[in-house]
Amino acid sequence: MRPPLSPSSSSLSSLLCGRGEHVKHGTTAKASECGEVSSAPHKRRAATKAWHRGGQQWSGQQDVGPARQQQEDDEMLVPHQELPVAGPEAAPQPMEVVAQTEPANTAESQPPEDPQTSRFTWTIESFSRLNTKKHYSDVFVVGGYKWRVLIFPKGNNVDHLSMYLDVADSGNLPYGWSRYAQFSLAVVNQIHPKYTIRKDTQHQFNARESDWGFTSFMPLGDLYDPSRGYLVNDTVVVEAEVAVRRMVDYWTYDSKKETGFVGLKNQGATCYMNSLLQTLYHTPYFRKAVYHMPTTENDMPSGSIPLALQSLFYKLQYSDNSVATKELTKSFGWDTYDSFMQHDVQELNRVLCEKLEDKMKGTVVEGTIEQLFEGHHINYIECINVDYKSSRKESFYDLQLDVKGCRDVYASFDKYVEVERLEGDNKYHAERYGLQDARKGVLFLDFPPVLQLQLKRFEYDYMRDTMVKINDRYEFPLQLDLDRDNGKYLSPDANRSIRNLYTLHSVLVHSGGVHGGHYYAFIRPTLSDQWYKFDDERVTKEDIKKALEEQYGGEEELPQINPGFNNTPFKFTKYSNAYMLVYIRESDKEKIMCNVDEKDIAEHLRIRLKKEQEEKEHKKKEKAEAHLYTVIKIARDEDLKEQIGKNIYFDLVDHEKVRSFRIQKQLPFTSFKVGQLREVSNKAHNAELKLFLEVELGPELCPIRPSEKSKEDILLFFKLYNAEKEELRFVGRLFVKALGKPSEILTKLNEMAGFSPNEEIELYEEIKFEPNVMCEHIDKKLTFRSSQLEDGDIICFQKAPVPDGDTQVRYPDVPSFLEYVHNRQVVHFRSLDKPKEDDFSLELSKLHTYDDVVERIAHQLGLDDPSKIRLTSHNCYSQQPKPQPIRYRGVEHLLDMLVHYNQTSDILYYEVLDIPLPELQCLKTLKVAFHHATKDEVVIHSIRLPRNSTISDVITDLKTKVELSNPDAELRLLEVFYHKIYKIFPPHEKIENINDQYWTLRAEEIPEEEKNLGPHDRLIHVYHFMKDPNQNQQIQNFGDPFLMVIREGETAAEVMERIQRKLRVPDEFSKWKLAFISMNRPEYLQDTDVVSARFQRRDVYGAWEQYLGLEHTDTTSKRSYTANQNRHTYEKPVKIYN
Predict the structure, then answer these.
(1) 1007-1121 has which CATH code?
(2) How far apart are CA 476 and CA 453, in angstroms?
(3) How many CB atoms lie within 10 A of CB 1087?
(4) Cβ count within 10 A of residue 162
(5) N or C, which end of the chain has less CB nearby within 10 Å?
(6) Candidates 3.30.540.10, 3.20.20.140, 3.90.70.10, 3.40.50.2300; correct CATH number of 259-369?
(7) From CA 352, how far away is CA 902, in angstroms rounded?
C-alpha cells in the first residue's frame, strides 16, 4: 500500500507534517560531590598536572580543571570560596562543573591584539594585625575594567596564604558579561628580590567565577617568618600584573572582519600547501604576475593551473569567507589520496615554481619566477701550491641552511661559505698538475629580491638509522644584512652596488615531529609592524614575539615557583619552530609590495568569479530561508512513459529526474496549482513533497477538469509486458471501484495495450523489488479490495502465455522478467596484463555460478576449455586487481566475485592459462631471474612444480631451460630485495611458502672458487652503492649484489682487482671506492688494508650486518638548485601532473 498521490489539504505546510525543523538545545551539566548541590558562589578547582622534584610538589600553569578532593600541600588554582574548617565530621565539599551556555560577550569575541597590561603594587602594613578573614586591595583599572586583589591573610581554611584576582564591579555588570585575562600574583621578597614568589595563570571571568587565583599560594610559616624576607617591618608587598585580552570564540570568529584577510580550507592534510600559498599570495608582485598569465573564458580551473591559481588568489582578495583549494589540487592532477598525504612545503614550493616557470614561458610574464626568486653562487676549487682555479656558476631559487650546530641565520651563512681544505687522501686532481692541496668553497654572486631560506630541520641520524627533527634553538633577525663584514659572503665578481639588506616577510612554521605535524605561517602582508597568523581557515593578529622569538625552537623553561628551595627548573622541548623564512630586499620593497587591484585581473575571470560569488550568496540566502520553503517534485504521465522500461523497471518514476519547484510552505494549494512557478535544480533538499499531476484530455486533446473522485474509487497504474521483445512500458492509469473486479476492466486494458477486445491477458501486482522481487498473480474473479489493491498500486499485465507455443522466450511472465532485471549485471572484463583497459563486456546474472561465468568468457574468447580461464576480482579502493586470483569454483555466484567489502564492482580481470586451473592450483609457480655466468644478460623463467617440491627440484627444472657455461655447472637460488641478498636457499627447502611477489628470486652458477673454500676463506656480500647528497649522504644501494670469496691476508687492492675481473668492468672501475660497511656506515679501505680482518669469524647473511660496498660516483645531472634535503623519508615525492 502506498500513500495517496493527490493532496487535498488547503496549504502546503499541512502536507509537510513530521518534516519540521529539529532544533537541538544546549543543556547545562552540573556535577557535585556526595550528591549535594552547593549554594556557594565559588567552586573548587585544582591544577590538572603536577611535577615532582626531590620530594617537592609543584603545580604549574596548566589548564584549570575540576578536582574532587584537595590533597595536602596541593597548590590550588581556583576561584576563592570560604572553605569550611575541616573537622572529624567534615564532609568533602561539593564541586559543580558548569557547561557555559551563554554566548561570549561580543567585546570578548575579538581576535587577540596587543594586550592591555598593567602592574599594580599593594603595600599591606600591619599585616600580622589584620583580623579580617579576607582583605581586598584598592581598585585598579586594566583594559577599561576594574580589578582588585583579594587575600586571605590566615589562609582560606588552609595553612597557606590564599590570593585571588577579583572583578571589582561584578555585581553591577550586565547579564552574560565575561572577560578574559592573563595575570600573575606575587609576594615580593623585600630582602632578596630574586626569591620573590610569583605565580601566573589565565581565566575567563564571568558572573559565576568572578575571581580566580591560588588557594595555596605560599605556606603561612614562610610568610610570617621575618628571616625569610616576605614580612619586613610587619609589611607585605603584593604585586599583580594583569593583561586583558579579548577572548576568541572559534565558532563565531570572522577572519575577514577582524583582520581583513581570509584563510584557506584544509582538504585533509594540505596545511603545508595552505601556508605556502598564503606566503606567495602576500607577495603582491607574484600575485600580479599570476593574474597576468593568459587564460580564456573556455578554460576550466580544474584543468588549468594558471586559471585555478588566479581563481584562488581572486577569492583570497575579495571573498569574505575561507577559500577552498580543491580546484587547484585538481589542476595539479591530484586525487583525494594526494590531499590526505602530507608533503613537504619546501618541496612543493620548488615543484610549483618550476611548473609556473614553465607555464609562463612565451607570455608577458615570462621570467617572473627567475626575477623574484633566482640568485647565483660560485662553486670554486683553488689550488694552494700551483696557479690553478676551477669555478662553476650555479643558480638557486632557495637556500638550504643548516640548523644543527648553528645558533642563527648568520652562523648558517658562515657555514655555507666555509672553506674546505682538500689535502692528504682527499687531494684535488688538477688538470696538468695532478693531485694538489686545494681550497673548496662557495661564494655568492647575487641574491634574489625575494630570498627563501629553507631551514634543515630534518636530517638522517646514522646511529638510529632514521630521520629525526632538529628542534634546536635557531634565531633569525627581523632585518638580515648579507653585506656584513665587508661582504664576506660575496664573490669578488659580485655587484657590490646592490645593498643586500633584507626585511623579514614571512615565517612558515612546522609543529610536530618527523612522522607528521601541522604547518602554519606568520606573515607581514604590508611589511608593517603588524603580524598575522595564517592557520588554514583562521587568520589572527599576532605580535612580533609570537612570530619570531616563539618560533626559534629550543627548550622552554617553566618559571620556578619556590626559588628558595633551589629545585631544578623544569624544561621541555618546543616542537613548533620555523621551517622556512622569506625575506624581501629593502631596495626592491616598493616593486615587490606593489598595488594589485581589479584592473590586473582578466575581465573574463572577474565575470566568472563574480557570477560564482553571486550564486554562492544566492545559495546562502536560500539555505537561510530553507525553513520557509519546501520543494515539490511533480511527476506527469509523460515522465512515466519516458522512464519506465528505460531508466527504471520497478515503481513508477525517479523523482530526481522530474521537474521541481521551490514553494513557500504557507502558499495555498490552489495558488500553487495556478500560479507562476520557478523551477529549481534537482538536488537533495531537507523538505520535499512528491506529487503526481493528473491531466485529463478532452476530445481535441485539450485539458479538461478531472472527474470527481469518490471514496470508493482507487487509482491504479498499469504497465504492459511484451515477453517476445522483453519490454516493459507504461500504458496508463485508471480509477476503479474498490469492490469491482479486474475482469470488469479487461476490455479497457486491451484497448490501452492495442490488443483485440477479447485478448486473454494475465495480471500481476508489483509489490517490491529489494532485497528480492515480489510480484504476485492477481485473481481476476476477486474484488480489488480482496486482492488488497489500494490507491497508487501498480499492475503489470501481459498476453497469456501459450503452452508449448512455437515461439521460445527467455522470460515468459512478468515475475521472471523482473527477477532477470533485478539480477542482471553488465560486467567489464579486462585482461590481467592490461588492467586499465576494458577488453569486452558481458551481460550476466548475479546468480550465475562460477561455471556459468567462465563458460560465457570462454565463448566470448573462442576458447574450447573454460577451465583454463582464471579470474581476479577488482579492488574498489585501489582501482587495481586484487593480489590473489579467484580459486577454481572458489565462489558460488557472480555477485560474490564483484563484492568488495561494502561496495560492488562491475569489473573482473581474466587470464588464459596454458593448463586447466584445477591442475595449476596443485602446482607452485615461481618467477626466477637467471643471471648468466659469462654473458651480460638476465632471463626470467617461470618454474611450475608440485607444491611439495624443493629448491633442488627448482634447480633441476631450471637447468633444462637455461644455457650453462659448462654442462657440470652447479646452480644456487638467492632471495634479493632492494639490491641486497637476504638469503641463499638450501637445496632441501620446500618451495610452497616462498613468496616471489615482493622478493626477487635469482639463480646463478656457483663459481669454482666458492666450491673449495679454505679454512680461512670467507664468503661475503658485495653491494653497489652511492651516497645521496639530497638525503644527508645516506647510502643508496643499486644494481645487482653478488657474493665474493675473501682470502686470509688479501688486501683491498687485490680484492678490487678480482672484482674488476669478475664484473668485467672497463675503465670507470678506477673511480669506484671499496668500503667496509657495517650498520649502513661506510669505512673506506686503503689499498694496503687487509679486508678479511674487518669481518667477524662467522657467516654473515643479514642485510643489516657487514658487507663490502662499491661506491660509484653519481654522474647524473643536477637541477639548477639542490633537491630537497628536508623531505621526510616516509613521504612520496610531490608531483604536479598537468
Answers:
(1) 3.10.20.90
(2) 11
(3) 11
(4) 26
(5) N
(6) 3.90.70.10
(7) 38
Q: Tell me how far apart the terminal alpha carbons of the chain are, to the nearest angstrom.
A: 55
Return d(Cα 536, Cα 285) in angstroms, integer: 23
CATH 3.90.70.10 maps onto the chain at 259-369, 373-560+570-593
Closest CA relative to residue 354, chosen from 390, 313, 395, 391: 395
Q: Kindly give, in sequence order, each residue whose CB lies less than 8 Å from that of residue 64, ignoring residues fewer than 6 positions away.
A: 45, 46, 47, 48, 77, 78, 201, 203, 212
Fold of 820-913: Ubiquitin-like (UB roll) (3.10.20)
Instruction: Name every residue whose Cβ is closer than 8 Å to that of residue 146 and which is 6 or more positions away in sequence.
Output: 139, 140, 167, 168, 169
Q: Which helix (H) or strand (E) holds 351?
A: helix 345-359
> Do 854 and 871 form a contact (C-beta atoms < 8 A)?
yes
The number of angstroms, rounded, from the C-alpha of 462 to the middle of its chain's C-alpha atoms is 29
The CATH 3.10.20.90 domain(s) of the chain lie at 820-913, 1007-1121
Q: What pLDDT was estimated at residue 1031?
A: 53
Residue 753 Cα distances to 434, 718, 802, angstroms: 103, 10, 18
Cα–Cα distances (Å) from 36 to 27, 39, 389, in that order, read 20, 9, 88
**Which three cell numbers, joined as nine digits, stand for 970?**
652447479
The CA distance from 673 to 172, in Å, is 59
Alpha-carbon Rg of the chain, whole angstroms?
A: 41
pTM for the structure as a whole:
0.51
| pLDDT reported for residue 54 | 31
| Cell numbers found for residue 204 | 575567563
pLDDT for 43-94, tens place per residue? 333 332 223 323 322 223 333 332 223 333 333 344 444 444 444 333 333 3
Please state, as a whole number, how many other Cβ atoms lie within 10 Å of the Cβ of residue 295. Answer: 21
C-alpha grid cell, residue 332: 595539479
Helix axes 271-281, 305-318, angle to 10 degrees: 80
User: Which residues, given as ranges, of the chain have pLDDT below 70?
Assistant: 1-115, 246-251, 334-345, 461-465, 557-571, 672-687, 804-806, 996-998, 1028-1033, 1067-1068, 1096-1105, 1114-1138
- The residues assigned a catalytic role are 271, 518
Instruction: Please identify which residue in the block is written with the cell numbers 527477477.
Output: 819
Task: Tell me which residue of 836, 896, 846 sits closest to 871, measured CA to CA.
Answer: 896
Report the distance separating Cα 645 and Cα 818, nearest Å. 11
Q: And the C-alpha cell for 793? A: 498500486
pLDDT digits (tens, 9 = 90+) for 652-679: 998 888 888 888 888 887 776 654 555 5
Fold assignment, 373-560+570-593: Cathepsin B; Chain A (3.90.70)
User: How far is CA 373 from each of CA 376, 629, 759, 1045, 1106, rounded to the nearest angstrom?
Assistant: 10, 55, 86, 54, 45
Report d(CA 137, CA 150) in Å as an integer: 6
Q: Residue length, the chain?
A: 1138
Three-class SS state of 543: coil
